[in-house]
Amino acid sequence: MKIKKGYILGAVFIAILCAVAIYSYNTYHFKKASRDILYQLSNQLIVKQGLSEKMSTHLIFDTLYVDGNISKNDDKIIASIIEKNLIPVQTISINSGGGDIETAINIGRIIHDKGISIEVRRLCLSSCANYLFPAAKNKVINYGSIIGFHGSPNSDDSKLITTVDGERTSDPATTDKIFAEIRKTDKAFYNNIHVSWMMPLCGQKENIGDPDTGLSTYSEKDFTQFGVKNISYTDGEMVWKKSMDIMGIPFAHYCKEN
Questions:
Q1: This prediction's pTM
Q2: Distance between CA atoms of 94 and 92, rounded to whole angstroms?
Q3: 70: which strand partners?
């Protein structure tokens, strides 16, 4: 009887474990499917907000939500909101396609000096990725969010394009003159936050950017080599990397300064 009782208890225990495992598996996949559906439904609207020509902000307790491209004087708007808020701003939740370089550098300085964290809600591209993201105390990357790089003022002259008298040009003599000062500012910014100024450039050097946008991103390991630390992912890095693969955003690799 003791042996039979032991067998019965063992069988019951195994059955319970199997039931828990099946429930957990189904729950995970149901949640993942629901999340993916919501992501697809909201994706288009969120992207439009992130690429809006005019930046919008709204403050909820200690989190400042920022959507849209970065334009001249947006740094002053953000600085004013942070200074006037009775509750210290702890996090900036960003959804931005990038924008004006000098303004983005100034916002990056504010983020760094105030010890503010950043949450990438959907997009952090170009100057947002270059300056806001690495300056933050902590970085949270949401499911399907893109931290996209496609160069900086310190890109090779052949990669720089500017407009003079209505004409687009990449002539080195012209770009050198126009970008000379901002190149110094760019390097000084990275030196101040202890991050390599090569970070936005390695994808260009590998020539692996997305065919339509030129964007590439990095794994946490490569980010760390540049000096960008304290990164976390809402669904784990592997799930995030899979979402980048689905969207066709290639991963560049760490490269050293010239």
A1: 0.79
A2: 6
A3: 99
